[in-house]
Specification:
1 helix; 65% strand; AOC barrel-like
Length: 161
C-alpha cells in the first residue's frame, strides 16, 4: 500500500470514529431544565365534600406562557385536581407546553400547599418534535399573585435519546 493511500485510509478511519463519537454524544444529551410558567385560571369548579366545613374537591384548567431557559418560550396549559381542607390542599395533574416549532413537552405533577402557593414533584411523560423521547424528573414551586393568577418556578434533569 502506498504512503498516500495509507494516509487516506488513516484519515478515513479517524473521520468515521469522530462522527461516531459526536453522534453518540448528541444522541444521549443530558442536562438541567429550568423554567417559569405564568398562568391564569380559565376553568375552576369546586364541590363541597360535606364531611366537615371547608372541605372541597376542586378541578381547574389554567393557561399561560412558559419560559424555558433551554427551549425558549411556549404556550402552556396546566390542569389538575385538589383536595382542599380549609385552604390546605393536596393534588395533582398535568402540564403541557407547545413551542413555536410545534415541539411539545408534557409533565405529570403532584404536590401540596396552601395560601399563597404550593410545591411538589413532576415527571416528564412525553415529548414530541425536538423533544421526542425525552425523559426526566423535577420539582416545582407555585406562587399566587391574585386569585386566579399564579406562576410556578420549575427545575429538573432530562435525558434525550
Amino acid at each position: 500500500m502506498s504512503r498516500s493511500k495509507l494516509i487516506a485510509f488513516i484519515a478515513l478511519i479517524t473521520f468515521a470514529f469522530g462522527v461516531a463519537l459526536i453522534s453518540d454524544a448528541l444522541a444521549g444529551e443530558k442536562g438541567k431544565m429550568v423554567w417559569r410558567n405564568a398562568n391564569h385560571m380559565t376553568t375552576f369548579q369546586a364541590v363541597k365534600v360535606g364531611d366537615v366545613e371547608g372541605h372541597t374537591l376542586q378541578l381547574f384548567e389554567a393557561k399561560g406562557i412558559s419560559f424555558h431557559e433551554k427551549w425558549g418560550v411556549g404556550q402552556v396549559t396546566v390542569t389538575g385536581t385538589f383536595d382542599d381542607m380549609n385552604g390546605e390542599w393536596t393534588g395533582g395533574g398535568f402540564e403541557h407546553c407547545t413551542f413555536p416549532d410545534g415541539s411539545t413537552i408534557s409533565f405529570k405533577w403532584e404536590g401540596k400547599g396552601g395560601a399563597p402557593g404550593g410545591e411538589g414533584t413532576l415527571t416528564i411523560i412525553k415529548g414530541t418534535g425536538k423533544l421526542a423521547g425525552i425523559q426526566g424528573r423535577g420539582t416545582w414551586k407555585s406562587y399566587t399573585v391574585v386569585p386566579g393568577q399564579f406562576y410556578a418556578d420549575d427545575e429538573g434533569e432530562y435525558t434525550l435519546p
